[in-house]
Amino acid sequence: MLKVINTTDSGAKEKLNKILNRSSFDNEGQMEAVQNIWDDVKDNGDQAIFKYTAKFDGAELDESTLEVQEEEIAAAYEKVDEEFISALQTSIANVEDFHQKQLREDWMDIKEDGVIVGQKFSALEKVGLYVPGGRAAYPSSVVMNGVPAQVAGVDEISMVSPPAADGSMNPYTLVAAAEVGVDTIYKVGGAQAVAGLSLGTNTMMQVDKIVGPGNIYVTLAKKLAFGYVDIDMLAGPSEILVLADETANPRYVAADMLSQAEHDPMASSVLVTTSKEVALEVKEELKQQLKELSREEIAAEALENYGSLIVAQDLTEAIKVTNQFAPEHLEVKVDDPFAILGKLRNAGAIFLGEYAAEPIGDYVAGPNHVLPTGGSARFYSPLNIDDFIKKSSVISYSKEGLEKVKDDAIKIAEVEGLDAHANSVKVRFE
After folding, report:
1. Is the pTM of this model over 0.70?
2. What is the DSSP string of 167-233?
3. 238 is in an annotated binding site
């Protein structure tokens, strides 16, 4: 079980570095396998898609069964309960409301001399959503990736997700896709799905951007895809950091740490606190609550490998450690969380107060749960409307407006040795 360590201990920095470096995207063996799949899809299209789906998922598909049909969606509705549909609709409504507030309008700055500059916003035409499958259903991933695309005005939304061995799709995932308004669903996952969306095949539509998390093979395939299409980010294993003082409730803290530890053996759950007593109490709570989990082994392995209980000298140092870690999920369990909000620079999502439990952000709060991991919150943002929108600059000049700046433009062009650039301006005044 976890040891309580102080920031002054010799192993504290090494422990944090181990956690942050746990999701390297430079594994040569895995990258080689992904490259081979990519090349096969590029050369052989659908046949490669079918081959790898049979190999990795056990599903034998062809051109007539790769795409989910309307009758399959109708059958999925018969398999899910009304309470799930109601909960799903609440989630969709809240996510839609949050992302609507991010929309921006075109603007123009019109000057007296006839010069006009501005910005035009246009939605992407085609977007692909990757939704994990396999061991569990993730309808929330459909919501979090699909709703912002819809709000942004994307014309065509395709979704890929691994099928079961019998070729069926998880009914909860299918219902979520229908409720969100996904246009096309393909029964394919893994690196081959990313390649199919990036390159296009006879059956799969090429998209402009791919969003959504997956395993290391999906992530490496998205790395290859960048340039053919855009991607949202390279997502690693889940993580949570709880920043706490002596007022924190150890039972709540432990429960929230376990909410991420149960995801994956590589998930990370970290407590940074100013109170050694709280750290010790959280340690005991983790022991007790682990016994109640159906995914006890996974959570225990995650805690053992990538969990940590760190005691800082004071709140200032605790905040410094938190910003260095730049967590995907940051919970702030201190006496006055809003008082330090301005000091928290690096985090994907920030949960303030003892009742802001991380899973609420995953499902129903409204903000997106597709978040930067592995320290990338230092420079990445959560998935948002801007991920589905392009910006175009607008420029219009009158002769009067151009005459005011022509000499400056010509001078810079000549310094750069670009005579044609300079001449493009000169000819308008000859």
Report:
1. yes
2. S---HHHHHHHHHHT-SEEES--HHHHHHHHHH--SSSPP-SEEE----HHHHHHHHHHBTTBEES-
3. yes
